[in-house]
C-alpha cells in the first residue's frame, strides 16, 4: 500500500533494492538520524529522487520538548547542515541566501515564510559597516520569502534565481513544508537534502526546481512534513486492522481523492515552534548572533 501514498521523505521510500544506494542510521541522545545517499542516476530513477544525500532527523514533538531538548535538536541539525555545506562548498560559505518557500496564508505551508522572519540577516550590515559585520562573525546572510505562483504570478524559482544573479551567494538554503507518508512523521521529522527542492511536489503541484542546475549555486533543502494525504489515514487504519491488501475498488476511490490533505489541529503552534527551531539551527550554522 505504501506505493500509493505521496511522500517527500527519502527515509519513507521503498529501498528494498539498495544497489547504488547507501543507507545508514545513527542515534544521538534519543534522536535517530538516517542518511540515504543516492549514488547513481539509475538508482535515482528507480526511487524517484535526484542523486545526492538526504539526512532525516527524527526530532519528535519539538513543540512539547524541554528547552534543553530543543537546544540539542537545533545543535544536531546545525551539525548536519554544516556537514552538507562543507561537502557542497568545500569550506564554510562566505555568503548564504535563505529562501523561505510556501504560502504564508496557509498555516501548514508557512514554515519557510515564518523562518525568514526569525533569522538575522547581515548582508546589509556588511555593506554599510564592515567592522560591525566582522565583530558579529558568521556568514553574509540574506533572505527572501518569494511566496507562491498564485500570489505573485512568478515562479518562486525565478525570484530566487534573480536574487542569486544580483547577490551572488555561495549557498542557498531552501526551506519548505513537506508531505509525509506516515502520520507518525507529521511535524516530528526534519529532512536535509543536498539536491535542492521542487516546491509543491509532495502535493502534486510540481513547480520549477530550485537546485544547482537552475540557480548555478549549491542548494540545501531544509524541509519538515506538515501534511499527509487524507488517504494515508485510511491506509493507516487498514494496516492497524491487519488488512494488507484492500479491495481494488477502495484503492480506486482513494486514488480519486488525492487532492485532499490533512494537518494536525495544533498546526499554528507546531509551525511556530518548528520555525523557531529552523531559525536557531541556521543561526548556529551560519550566523554570528
Question: Could you characterize what this model shows?
Answer:
By secondary structure, this protein is an alpha/beta fold. The chain is built from eleven helices and nine strands. Strands 1, 2, 3, 4, 5, 6, 7, 8 and 9 form a nine-stranded mixed sheet that branches. Strand 1 (21-28) and strand 2 (31-38) form a beta hairpin. Helix 2 packs across helix 11. The radius of gyration is 19 Å and the shape is globular. The termini are far apart. The mean pLDDT is 89.
Overview features:
alpha/beta; nine-stranded mixed sheet; 11 helices; 37% helix; 289 residues
In brief:
With 289 residues, the chain is α/β, with parallel strands linked by helices. It is 37% helix and 23% strand. A hairpin with a 2-residue loop joins β1 and β2.
Per DSSP, the total helix count is 11
- How many runs of DSSP E, i.e. beta strands? 9
What ranges have pLDDT less than 50 throughout 5 or more consecutive residues? none
Question: What is the H-and-E element order?
Answer: EEHEHEHHHEHHEEHEHHEH
Report the oligomer. Answer: single chain
